[in-house]
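Researcher: Go.
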Amino acid sequence: MDTSGMLRPEELPFAVPKVLADAIYELIDAIERDDLCVDCYENEVESIARKLDEEHDMWVRRYYARGGWRNGRP
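Model: Structure:
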């Protein structure tokens, strides 16, 4: 699947811890290769995002784990 429109961690309007950035990149890679277990990668991003403050946590979870990137919005 084409993920060229998906924001990369360095493009986010807030600081992203390395562990979360790594999980986001793994999710992007899984989506690009049409991995059958993409939900596992989404769950990992969602789990790690819970360590952020509430606003950024929700943003990351809506955008990456719940597919908001497909609509071009968080």
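Model: The chain has a mean pLDDT of 91.
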